[in-house]
Amino acid sequence: MEKYLTWYKEIIKKNGIKNTVQKEAVLNVLIKASSHLTVEEIYQQIKDVKIGLATVYRSLKLFEDLGIAKEIPMGGARYYELKLFGKKPLHIHFKCMNCNAMTDIDDTETNLDYIRLNQKVEHKMGLEVNDANITLLGLCKECREKLNAQTK
Amino acid sequence: MEKYLTWYKEIIKKNGIKNTVQKEAVLNVLIKASSHLTVEEIYQQIKDVKIGLATVYRSLKLFEDLGIAKEIPMGGARYYELKLFGKKPLHIHFKCMNCNAMTDIDDTETNLDYIRLNQKVEHKMGLEVNDANITLLGLCKECREKLNAQTK
DNA sequence: CTACCTGCAAAACGTTTGCAAGACG
DNA sequence: CGTCTTGCAAACGTTTTGCAGGTAG
Q1: What is the span of the domain harbouring residue A68?
Q2: What residue spans of B15-52 are helical by DSSP H?
Q3: Of A117, A134, A141, which is closest to B127 when you measure between CB atoms?
Q4: Does residue A76 sit in the same domain as residue A27?
Q5: Most CB contacts within 10 A, which of A26, A59, B115, B121?
């Protein structure tokens, strides 16, 4: 947590960008959440810090450029989450078509399977893969059982 | 091609929807392109057919509901492409971060690898996977070579 | 002290909607 | 004929931008 902040400060200094309360507030929300959030959700959590919506947008775009954050577009909405920062090199999103909930599939082995597969593609196609957006669509466990119980 | 049209007409009849020149025009663009297009790109190709932008949107949404087309969100923009219609049960998109080109990775074996992996997740997590959006980000072959040549 | 950053409000953008007119079956 | 569909323009929500003032380094 502290480590993230320190690392972030080095990055922006190296790029001649100034640190501000606002940028740090946005970053902190992302760190604490450690999962995908919409711009609005981020804004709601820090609007007491005297920050304008525009600044939230600007900060997120900056973080994206610096490789700190990542955008995940999903059916009209745009989610943001921390990228790299060591922990999660890749993970998979799952969206339930029935209840519209969006969750992470947080299974190390599965994630590694996907990373391995991405590398296979990289070599086979002669390109360089730096990142991957993987979203599975279907029915979550709960909805699946509920729908099956109704025998339709 | 003709087969698609016939199939489509059966589907919409079954749902009590009326066929029109406009809907068919949108569908034809998708069939001919057989790859991802933005709403604007679709509109440009058929605006001579006397069609309004709103109708393109409405048709695409309808096609999505009927399971004919599929939306692929990518960094702010929304792409559409034909779904199912037999041929491609899943395929992977690749976006080059340098030239911004978006291409399909059209390799049967690779696609099958991903489908197998998706099924593995399905069983492991107890959910039902009906569809998947997979987009890889990185450098395409051309840009990779170009950038390497510059030795930076 | 200078360059960068911010908030605000206005503008731009993509998408959706209400409505009256039109077309399909 | 009735219902579904269309084009248009207005409405809408989200994202971006210009600008004058503020702040970090």
Answers
A1: 1-87
A2: 21-33, 39-46
A3: A141
A4: yes
A5: A26
